[in-house]
């Protein structure tokens, strides 16, 4: 699914994609400022899921540590 939202502060329209993962969860990502970028990204993500090569972009990024 592709959808857009207009930022209230600066008036720029941002495009987002939403897709289902193999485990049944839904994932959404910001795709940029053009619909074409969003269309290309969702095709790429769905192909990665079908091939089994999809990896969560947030995975591996450590959050802040409070020591």
Outline the fold blueprint:
Elements: E1 2-6, E2 13-20, E3 26-32, H1 35-51
Antiparallel strand pairs: 1-2, 2-3
Description:
The protein is an alpha+beta fold and 67 residues long. The chain is 25% helix and 30% strand. It is built from 1 helix and 3 strands, in the order E-E-E-H. Strands 1-2-3 form a 3-stranded antiparallel β-sheet, with helices on one face. A hairpin with a 6-residue loop joins strand 1 and strand 2. It is flat, with a radius of gyration of 14 Å. The model has no long low-confidence stretch (mean pLDDT 89).
Kindly list the characteristics that best describe this protein.
alpha+beta; 25% helix; 1 helix; 67 residues
Question: What is the helix/strand order?
Answer: EEEH
| Number of helices in the DSSP assignment | 1
Q: Please tally the β strands and state the result.
A: 3
Q: Spatial order of the strands in the main sheet? A: 1-2-3
Task: Please state the structural category.
Answer: alpha+beta
Instruction: Give the fraction of residues assigned to helices.
Output: 25-40%
The proportion of residues in beta strands is: 25-35%
**Cα distance, first to last residue?**
41 Å
Unreliable stretches (pLDDT < 50, length at least 5) are none
Brief summary:
The protein has 67 residues and is an alpha+beta fold.
């Amino acid at each position: 699914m592709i959808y857009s939202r207009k930022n209230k502060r600066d008036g720029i329209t941002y495009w987002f994609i939403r897709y289902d993962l193999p485990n049944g969860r839904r994932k959404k990502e910001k795709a940029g400022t053009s619909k074409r970028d969003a269309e290309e990204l969702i095709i790429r993500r769905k192909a990665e899921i079908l091939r089994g090569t999809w990896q969560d972009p947030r995975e591996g990024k450590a959050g802040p540590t409070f020591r």
